[in-house]
Specification:
The complex is a heterodimer of chains A (about 240) and B (about 425). By secondary structure, chain A is α/β, with parallel strands linked by helices. Chain A folds into two domains: about 160 residues, P-loop containing nucleotide triphosphate hydrolases (Rossmann fold); about 70 residues, no CATH class. Chain A is built from ten helices and ten strands. In chain A, strand 9 and strand 10 form a beta hairpin. Chain A starts with a strand and ends in a 5-residue tail after the last helix. Chain B has about 425 residues and is mainly alpha-helical. Chain B has two domains: about 60 residues, no CATH class; about 280 residues, no CATH class. Chain B has a two-stranded antiparallel sheet with strand order 1-2. In chain B, helix 5 packs across helix 15 and helix 6 packs parallel to helix 8. The longest helix of chain B has 27 residues. Classes of the chains: A alpha/beta (about 240), B mainly alpha (about 425).
């Protein structure tokens, strides 16, 4: 049985800067896989490369058995990948509802109402703010909106880039429990996080990215127990 | 700008402004060359004028800084605020009723109607550019190019092939839209300032081509004798066989044609408005606005940014083409001189002053800018000065434009519009 997402020897970068070097990883159907690493390790680049920007210079990216490394971004998203980008990037002058509807754009003709109801059930806070401009939301609400917007396209794989960025611990907890609930309903998630402690606790498996290379892989619990990980990414707070 | 800065700082700032003014005005105003009695050029100093100008700059900057806190947001007095808020939804309808009834009003003469046609032409151009700049957020400084394409398309098709206005009108729009796509392709990757520069160049290229391709466009002589439109085959000419006046049993009057042209441009402008409002509720219009807000997020959502940008360029350009065809048929004569950069700048000013994306704001701004400058025509050389000062004041008082709030395109059912 082949994995939902399979990367093999992927290299990518911006101009002369090589951001990803020979990256191989796989995400099985129904898993939460996390990618941890320091600033500039290439975590975000990896997610962007999945979406085709920048393009992979070498290696193969297969999604549900199909090679996607040569497809344009919108075609990749159409296959069932959705991303909540780093820094949330909601459309500030548009209402929450309009933001969510933008997420369903990929589905072209399908009626977005049932999926909208599902997203609002997952994040009831968004329902209260439906007609509010997205720029007036709090950081946590904007993160919910970014994830909700990604879910509107009914993806098979959800890419989350730093969902805990700049949020209060209580809000992060809320977001992470939503991710757990999504996964329990069958969503496959690839999560990029700086908050390694939280991410590894949530994820089934994890990969450690250092300078564009995967240096370690294992289950969340295994990685959490590794001394190098604790020293490098968990810091004093985890002791 | 800090609210009411302390006087010392304001004085220092004002002195700096006066210094800059001196640097500018000393060579521009201070040194004047006159032809002397013996025919030779004489240099004459006008330093008292320079002193006046620097003094005005000093006083103006000082007053502006001291009033800074009070200048912003002139809140309506309480007794007016509520009625004003309640009246706002009816404002567009009021304007529409006024526009429709205008030719029937007693004090409206030919001059006022001509002015109305001019204003409506700019309202339409403003609404067209609003799609590109206000909704899709693509700063286009060469919009007049599509206006020119539409005008020349109609003029050439009508004079060379004798096609009627009603066939040429859609053709002019399609041709302009085609040029919009043509411009769109090379600038797909450009944003902000870079996009502005390339579109500016594009506008100039079209004008220079029109000026130099003499065999097709007549060059600087332009195209004259462009046929006038008729109404279902009824002509508005005085000596026509099948004339409008005759058919309806009226006395011939040249004002009939003016009224007809007025309603024609009103209909075209309303078509632009209607299409824009409809599209805003469609996925395409939403994608334009999302593109304005955040292009990267759009890509992350799988929106085809190429198609989205090209449709914005094409539809915006198409409406400019319609307006251009109307312009050509109304003037009966066109030359490259009508399509200079200043036209693009005025249309863009209308969109920005109106509040980027607001249909009502664009209409009001067009009325103020075009109608206003026309009203001040008697003041001759002071006109542009007033125009500039008015723009500065509007931008200081209402930095987001006259109508700066954006109405959501979808609402809860039952919520008032």
């Amino acid at each position: 049985m082949s994995a939902l997402l399979h990367l093999e020897g992927v290299r990518a970068g911006y101009g002369a800067v090589q951001a990803l070097n020979d990256v191989s990883l796989h995400v099985e159907q129904g898993e939460i896989v996390t990618l941890i690493g320091a600033n500039g390790a290439g975590k975000s680049t990896l997610l962007m490369t999945l979406c085709g920007e920048p393009r992979a210079q070498a290696g193969s990216i297969r999604f549900a058995g199909q090679e996607i490394s040569g497809l344009p971004t919108h075609a990749i998203m159409r296959l069932g990948i959705a991303q909540s980008p780093e820094g949330r990037r909601v459309f500030p002058r548009m209402s929450v509802r309009e933001n969510l509807l933008m997420g369903a754009e990929v589905l072209s003709r399908a009626n977005p109402a049932p999926q909208l109801a599902r997203v609002l059930a997952l994040f009831p806070r968004l329902e209260e703010r439906l007609e509010q401009r997205a720029g007036t939301l709090s950081g946590g609400e904007q993160q919910m909106l970014a994830i909700g917007r990604a879910l509107m396209s009914q993806p098979r794989l959800l890419l989350l880039d730093e969902p805990s960025l700049g949020l209060a611990p209580l809000v992060v907890k809320l977001i992470f429990s939503a991710i757990r609930q999504l996964n329990a309903e069958g969503m496959t998630v690839l999560l990029v996080e700086q908050n390694a402690n939280l991410a590894l606790r949530l994820a089934h498996r994890g990969y450690v990215l250092v300078n564009g290379r995967i240096t370690m892989a294992g289950t969340g619990a295994e990685l959490l127990a590794t001394k190098e990980i604790r020293d490098a990414y968990l810091g004093a707070a985890a002791h | 700008m800090t609210a009411a800065a302390e006087p010392v700082r304001a004085l220092r700032d004002a002195a700096l402004a006066a210094l800059i003014a001196f640097g500018l005005f000393a060579p521009l105003v201070g040194l004047r060359t006159d032809v002397g009695s013996d025919g030779a050029l004489m240099l004459r100093g006008r330093w008292d004028d320079v002193a006046w100008l620097c003094g005005i700059a000093f006083a103006g900057r000082f007053a502006m800084l001291m009033l800074a806190g009070r200048l912003h947001a002139p809140a309506a007095p309480p007794w007016l605020a509520r009625p004003w808020q309640q009246a706002q939804p009816y404002l567009p309808r009021g304007f529409l009723a006024l526009a429709v009834l205008l030719p029937a009003l007693p004090f409206i003469e030919r001059y006022e109607l001509d002015l109305g046609i001019l204003v409506l032409t700019y309202v339409m151009l403003g609404w067209g550019l609003n799609i590109v700049v206000g909704l899709a957020g693509l700063l286009d400084l060469g919009y007049v190019a599509f206006y020119a394409v539409g005008a020349y398309a109609y003029a050439l098709l009508a004079t060379e092939f004798g096609l009627s206005f009603w066939i040429c009108l859609p053709l002019a729009g399609i041709l302009a839209a085609f040029w919009g796509v043509l411009l769109g392709f090379p600038v797909l990757r450009l944003r902000g300032d870079y996009l502005a520069i390339v579109t500016l160049a594009f506008g100039e290229i079209i004008r220079v081509v029109l000026l130099n391709w003499v065999s097709l466009t007549g060059g600087p002589n332009g195209i004259s004798g462009i046929p006038r439109p008729g109404l279902f085959g009824l002509s508005f000419a005085a000596d026509a066989d099948n004339s409008f006046a005759e058919f309806f049993g009226l006395e011939y009057d040249p004002i009939h044609r003016v009224i007809f042209l007025y309603y024609l441009i009103l209909a075209l402008a309303l078509l632009t408005n209607w299409v824009t409002l409809r599209l805003r509720r469609q996925p395409l219009g939403r994608a334009w606005e999302a593109l304005r807000e955040d292009e990267i997020a759009c890509r992350a959502l799988g929106i085809n940014v190429t198609i989205t940008k090209l449709t914005a360029f094409a539809i915006g350009a198409g409406f400019a083409g319609f307006a251009g065809a109307f312009f050509a048929t109304r003037q009966a004569f066109i030359s490259p001189e009508s399509f200079t950069f200043i036209e693009s700048a005025i249309i863009l000013a209308i969109v920005v002053l109106g509040g980027m994306g607001s249909q009502l704001g664009v209409a009001i701004a067009a009325l103020l800018l075009i109608g206003g400058t026309e009203l001040f025509r008697g003041l001759a050389e002071w006109r542009m000065l007033i125009f500039g000062a008015a723009m500065v004041v509007i931008m200081l008082v209402r930095p987001r434009g006259l109508v700066g709030t954006r109405t959501p395109s979808t609402l809860l059912h039952g919520a008032p519009r």
